[in-house]
Amino acid sequence: MSRRFNQANALAQVVSAASGVPVDPFLLERVKPTAPQVRLSRSQRELNVQGAFRVRKQVAAKVEGRKIVLVDDVMTSGATLNAAARALLRARAARVDVLVFARAA
User: Fold this and answer.
1) CA 56 to chain centroid
2) Which segments constitute the Phosphoribosyltransferase domain (predicted)?
3) Is the pTM of this model over 0.85?
């Protein structure tokens, strides 16, 4: 299943308009395929997305030394957000915070 509408990006655009903080939905790229997370346990989800993201080389300079806010619509285990944050920190982001609009059990 693939999403046709990026809810997280739409939410990030609203936050950006209210805060004046720019949005770049193309900082990260997926570098390995991952299985759907829907029926996976927390530990399986973490393994599934481990190393799945990296900062795109073309924008690495935009990340270094910066505070980054990841925006997502729903967080379940946090595995995907953690994997994305690790990729940003490997690219020398000064700090990564997460803003989610719903938390699933």
Assistant:
1) 13
2) 20-103
3) yes
